């Protein structure tokens, strides 16, 4: 069987000089926009030191490189020896300085290429029993407000659940950073009521400005 090669280019490198950080290459610096200190991210690295024809051909290993452990297929391990030497780490950004993302220590060696960075989302990356299957979420209709992501349930599933009480019907996935919560219809109504109360307690001057901005947006004018 012939395989078409994939092209991967480094977006940065792991650096270790007493601290561990990811040095983003200048041409990819714009891709860092939106990341903040304290965010959890997934690093996808290329273990270049394990990228040899011999190591790529190894399909079973002793976990943790300990011969006392029985052989297992590499897909059932985190061994760096695999057909494509990719490694994935979940790390927290401790601080950001220019094109450097400072993180806790990881076992990748200095100079390891970083081929991609993604935000960590608990719902997708740390799956657990969830009342709402992914296919029932209206992901294209999700709204992001600040750091909060709101993902509603698809309306087409309402008929199937018409006998379910508001306390039982899960209506909304709420994500804050990597954390995920599911709100029932009753909790959603309570949240809306709480937000309306908080809004009403805003200073009059702030509410007037917000109303003016909202009117301008509806009329297609600039703020």
From TrEMBL:
Keywords: Methyltransferase, S-adenosyl-L-methionine, Transferase. GO terms for biological process: methylation. The lineage of its organism: Archaea, Methanobacteriati, Methanobacteriota, Thermococci, Thermococcales. Residues 8-129 form the TsaA-like domain. Coiled coil: none annotated. It comes from Thermococcus aciditolerans. Belongs to the tRNA methyltransferase O family. The keyword Membrane does not apply. NCBIfam families: tRNA_TsaA (TIGR00104). This is tRNA (N6-threonylcarbamoyladenosine(37)-N6)-methyltransferase TrmO. GO terms for molecular function: methyltransferase activity. It holds the Pfam family TrmO_N.
């Amino acid at each position: 069987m012939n395989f078409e090669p994939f092209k991967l280019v480094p977006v940065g490198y792991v650096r270790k000089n007493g601290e561990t950080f990811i040095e983003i290459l200048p041409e990819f610096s714009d891709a860092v926009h939106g990341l903040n200190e304290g965010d959890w991210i997934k690093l996808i690295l290329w273990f270049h030191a394990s990228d040899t024809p011999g190591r790529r051909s190894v399909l079973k290993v002793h976990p943790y490189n300990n011969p006392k452990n029985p052989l297992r297929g590499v897909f059932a391990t985190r061994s760096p020896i695999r057909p494509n030497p990719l490694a994935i780490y979940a790390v927290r950004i401790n601080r950001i300085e220019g094109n450097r993302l400072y993180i806790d220590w990881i076992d990748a060696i200095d100079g390891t290429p970083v081929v991609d960075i993604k935000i960590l989302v608990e719902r997708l990356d740390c799956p657990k029993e969830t009342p709402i299957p992914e296919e029932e979420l209206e992901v294209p209709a999700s709204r992001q407000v600040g750091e909060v992501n709101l993902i509603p349930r698809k309306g087409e599933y309402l008929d199937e659940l018409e006998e379910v009480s508001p306390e039982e019907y899960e209506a909304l996935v709420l994500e804050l950073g990597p954390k995920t919560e599911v709100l029932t219809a009753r909790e959603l109504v309570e949240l809306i009521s709480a937000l309306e109360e908080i809004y009403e307690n805003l200073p009059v001057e702030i509410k007037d400005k917000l109303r003016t901005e909202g009117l301008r947006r509806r009329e297609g004018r600039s703020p």
